[in-house]
Amino acid sequence: MAGYVSRTYSSALSPTVQLLTNYLKQDAAVIKGRRCVVIGADAAYAPVKNAGAKSVAIFADCRKALTGYALADAVIVVGDLEAKDAHAAVSVIRAFARQKDAPVVIALSASMRRRLRSMLDTFETVSDGDVLVLRATTDEEDPLYREASLLKYAPEQGLPILIRQSPKGADGLGGVVWPGAIALARYLAPDMTPKTRIFELGCGTGFLGLALRAAGAGHVTLTDEFVELACANASLTEEGSDAPIIVRRVRWGCDEDAEDDPPPAKEYMWDPDVRKGILPHEPTATEKNLKELPQENAWREFIVGAELTPMVDGHVSLVKEIKRRLEHAVARGLEATAFIAMAAAESEKCATSSFLREAKKDLKIVHIKKDVPNVKEGEIDGLDCSLADGGDVVWVAELGLMPAATTA
Predict the structure, then answer these.
(1) In whole angstroms, what is the distance from residue 132 CA to residue 75 CA?
(2) How far, in Å, CA of 330 to CA of 4, rounded?
(3) Does some domain include residue 287?
(4) For helices 179-188 and 207-214, angle between their N-to-C axes, nearest 10 degrees
(5) How confident is the model at residue 242 (pLDDT cuts 50, 70, 90)?
């Protein structure tokens, strides 16, 4: 059977390893005497050890590091990390850099350095050049699950998932699963297919996007201003599905966070008509020996969010962000629809009514489903129903772009 290979630098030739080597020659003190866990490139062992590290554990995959090595007080991330691996890298950093002043050395592409920096809100920047160096600002015994509880979600269709909740995660309010997120997950689950992409706004724990991935979505992007808890849950729930998960910082309406997700990295297959039985890592591969694999063939994207509307002051920014993400999806040739779950409107002055008035200014309100069943007390293990806005139903607003914007 033909092997698979991605068109990237080998660990021995990676320019990021060379950047790391040059940096450590100038400033070895950052890791000297420390127990280091290194993610991404075997070739980084020598420069890290030569810089005076007490011990070095190398993992090619971030996910393996989470279970494979428990004695480290410095983290080095190097190589050709992709967007879909960022949440696992954040989880590794948070798992090992627990002591105050623990260093994190990041030798990656400029875009990935910026992405990881934006996702680590409890670290300060020591230096930011070709190599980014961060430092932990607090001591934490258990940074991923601070005062955590576990929510168990077993849908009628799809895979069961476990979600860690923390009142200290995602700025507090977003650190727990809200009943409206479960109601929306159930409502959308029958529509999930491998050709459906999910882009979640205000994800908090990441529950909604991860539940829709378990129901069959082919790609999920989780976004929030505070993403460390979502990173942890994404790392914990990846098994059982091949659908990629991207976690990234997005502040509503903020132009710094406006960029679209990058397209999936191209993958190649050995052409069995040219060479057969070659090992994937063999260095003699040339492009004439390779065939490009078909890429993700999604045809639609859902922008989703639940319990986002109580903060009335944020409605303008939320509508702006929904519109922006719809436009990104349409620009990629996809059908795009937003589904926002809210409390049933009680009056013209309530938060739901306020949001809908704002949405009408820039978006098309396709439909408002006013009878989506809410979650009942005791129905989901670990769910705090006191967070619900009350009522037996929630409203789900289906939103799209205005006709003129769609054709522009």
Answers:
(1) 12
(2) 32
(3) no
(4) 30
(5) confident
CA angle 129, 85, 57 (to 5 degrees): 75
**Rg of the Cα atoms in the chain:** 22
Residue range 7-47, pLDDT digits in tens: 333 444 578 888 999 999 999 999 999 988 888 887 888 89
73, 97 Cβ separation under 8 angstroms: yes
Do 131 and 227 have their domain in common?
A: no
Domain residue limits at 122 = 4-136
Phi first, then psi, for residue 165 (nearest 5°) are -115, 145
Asked if residue 107 has pLDDT above 50, the reply is: yes
366, 404 in Cβ contact below 8 A? no
Domain count, the chain: 2
- What's the rounded Cα separation, in Å, for the pair 25 and 117? 23
> How far, rounded to the nearest angstrom, does the alpha carbon of residue 314 sit from its chain's CA centroid?
22
The CATH code of the domain that includes 68 is 3.40.50.150
Domain boundary among 109, 136, 163: 136
In a domain, 221, yes or no: yes
Residue 290 placed within a domain = no
Neighbours of 114 (CB within 10 A): 15
Inter-residue contact 122 to 155 (CB < 8 Å): no
Mean pLDDT of 85-94: 85
Asked if residues 399 and 338 have their Cβ atoms less than 8 Å apart, the reply is yes
For 285-350, where are the alpha helices, taking DSSP H only? 315-331
Q: What is the pLDDT of residues 262-295, one digit of tens each?
A: 665 554 444 444 333 333 333 344 444 445 544 4
Clarify whether residues 215 and 321 are in a common domain.
yes
Residue 404, both tokens: 């003129």
Specify if 196 maps to a domain: yes
Is the torsion defined by CA of 18, 20, 21, 26 positive or negative?
positive
- In sequence order, what DSSP letters do the residues of 237-260 get, joined into one string? S-TT----EEEEE--TT-GGG-PP
Same domain, residue pair 159 and 51: no
Cα(216)–Cα(210) distance, rounded to whole angstroms?
Answer: 10
Tell me the two tokens of residue 394: 């929630």
For CA atoms 261, 194, 232, 83, give the dihedral sign: negative
CA–CA gap between residue 401 and residue 407 (Å, rounded): 9
Beta partners for 77? 39, 106
Note the maximum CA span of the chain: 70
For residue 199, give the 3-state DSSP assignment.
Answer: strand
